Amino acid sequence: MNLARHAHARRRGHTIVEMMVVLVFFGLVIVMATRLVVLMQGMQRAARNRLQSAVSLERLAQQFQRDVQAASKIVDDGIAETTAGGPPLRSPGEPAATPLLKLRIDERLVIYTESAGSVWRTFESVQRVADSGAASASPHGPHRDRFRLPDVARAAVETGMLSGSSHQFVRLIVRRVAPSGAESSTPLLNVQASLGKDLRFRDSNGKEQERP
User: What residues contact 141, with CB distance under 8 A and at least 6 apart?
Assistant: First the structure.
């Protein structure tokens, strides 16, 4: 009877093997839960980045159309890395900017460049010199707007003449780029605007005329 009671008392505890199995089980549960949390955070971050990129592309399209339609001409003298009387167009350590477009809008220069996964819009006042008729940069310095592109995307600008018209169009295209460097045939953004459209009006015959 004493032996039976003693054996029953021994069976009331847990062996080291059983405790190790329980610890390993809980460890696996914690690891799986941690991975699930990290995965969910990554999915939320990716969704947030996609939303921000979509909003940024929409803003870029609207701003680009407004600038092109308000511009009097495309400036073809190149896009310098620095502006007279102002700070550099890029911050220290920032990759060199790829020039896209330079517009003249009233007394301002509007410059579009691509750098560090974003399209940058830089504009500064331009002051006309009365005696020489030249244009020089104002000392007020440039202002910059940033439009973030989706991951692995590239922007390009095309120009041409509108069909059946003497007016010029400007098109901004954003395409995703494959690891091999090939661009996707389906653009993420394709926006076109008529250069100087806001500077023209339609006469009584329905023809567009330049505003005086």
Answer: 83, 85, 86, 87, 124
